[in-house]
Design goal:
This protein is of the alpha/beta class and about 600 residues long. Helix content is about 40%, strand content about 15%. The strands form four sheets. It has a six-stranded parallel β-sheet with strand order 3-2-4-5-7-6, with helices on both faces. A six-stranded parallel β-sheet has the order 11-10-9-12-13-14, sandwiched between helices. The protein has a six-stranded parallel β-sheet with strand order 16-15-17-18-20-19, with helices on both faces. Helix 18 links the parallel strand 15 and strand 16.
Length: about 600
Amino acid sequence: MGMVHISGSSIVIKTLKCLGVDVIFGYPGGAVLPIYDELFKDNAIRHILVRHEQGAVHAAEGYARATGKPGVCLVTSGPGVTNIITGLQNAYMDSTPIVCISGQVATFLIGTDAFQEADATGIAGPCTKHATLVRDVNQLARKIHEAFYIAKSGRPGPVLIDLPKDVQVSTADYIHPESEIVHPTYKPSIRSDISVIQQAVDMMKYAHRPVFYTGGGVINSGDQAGALLYDLANITNFPVTSTLMGLGGFPASDSKFLGMLGMHGTYEANLAMYHADLIVCVGARFDDRITGKLSEFSPGSRVIHIDIDRSSISKNVHADIPIVSDVSYALKDIFSLWKKICSTEDQSSKLNGWWQQINEWRAVECLKYQQSTTVIKPQYAVDRLYAATKDMDVYITTEVGQHQMWAAQRYKFESMRRWVTSGGLGTMGFGVPAAVGIQVAYPDSLVIDIAGEASFLMTMQEMSTAVQFRLPVKIFILNNERLGMVRQWQQLLHGERYSSSYSESLPDFCLLAKALGCHGIKCEDPADLDRCIKEMIDYPGPVIFDCVVEKDENCFPMIPAGCPHNEMLLGDQPYSSGSESDDDDQYDKHVMV
């Protein structure tokens, strides 16, 4: 196609349009004004003005996680780029594809400690897949194409493009590419050798206590991966459990789903993992919140590990059969081979004893809690929110803490990309801007951030963004006036020494909502909760809902840090001795109550 001689900032906008970008989350400053000028001239790309650069990255993450497309953000140099580092690390740990463009001082000023200069690529390098400083306007279009390729290929993640101001105003010939540009050296493997798949199927065939351990890789691989996982679980009769990031990859209502595992996972999921003889890990990474005490993690199991990121395999737990592959390809190949060599009826019969044991663990009902007629229990609040919204077109984000775990335990996700939370980094303040990003992508959907009051205060200014752009996000605050998870650890693990875990001067959230231009709702009585939730859902604009809950409620089950899966705190529940197998040699009981 023909060449056009244009400025670097025009190249940025033309290239983003070529890549299908329809929205940018950003905050202007001197070092990116040429790009903002081009956005003004060419309004094909929508710009969402956030109130803080961290909000721009989290909003881009929310957009990416809900849509599957890379999110894009634009910030200025110096403090603009340093303010996005938390978001970049969050995206890196949760494998979220985003591309951040940061302004930089002119090339001849780099290294002089110029006003608002910061070594963006040096700072961002450890928390991105790739960070590049573009010094030549003639390389700009290619660098942007490469950034998107890197962000979404292999294990997804964030990429930073640092762009000096003089490169933005320099001119060059823009050539529209005839085909997708890929990086010359970054070529991740996406499909494993069939001989390795054969070994995995052989190992699966002879397992007596198997479990599928699934993670965010199922979500990142796409809808086909979820469908294949569902089909494979049905044909093998294997139970399925999920990490926090993998929720929605397998239908929560399915009888084979054991719930979330890990520190606040279900009793049945954690004991199934502990006593399994085979773990089939699908797109997860055996992090410490899942494994607990590593030396005692699932001591009798063999491991098949499917992951597109070779470095994640055997990093924490040795994989007997490593499968470096996109989840969809691996599951498709396993399913095809299994159908050829295995009998579904024989397999189901062989696992009867395993399922009998799992159902006995399920009978413990580990998520039970003591209801109250005078105070709202946080579990009850999530239950009523779920009951009111489960049949709606709804997306749920969260902040980080107790409320996040209650949401993960109690809100049942039947499909992928409806659950967006901060997993690896655990970033308080993530949920509000993430909800903004999702609402931009799906303006007619119901988007709810289940929040804690402390997390909400960290990025509450993004509700002003929601008001400006008419984004009807709902903030459902479980307000216990505590740093809830900190307080719980202090109570259970630090001798009830409550050091700095109480918030003394919280704002009136209804007045705050009014000041921000939102609708405010406060509820303290369990009898009023359903009516107030309906009011929140029905209100056509952004809402801040102050749900005042029991102040000292703990989140159970809980595996204390450094303990194995078979040592769980189950709160005040009595433990039924009949819930374990009679074979004490095979299933030892080590539950702390």
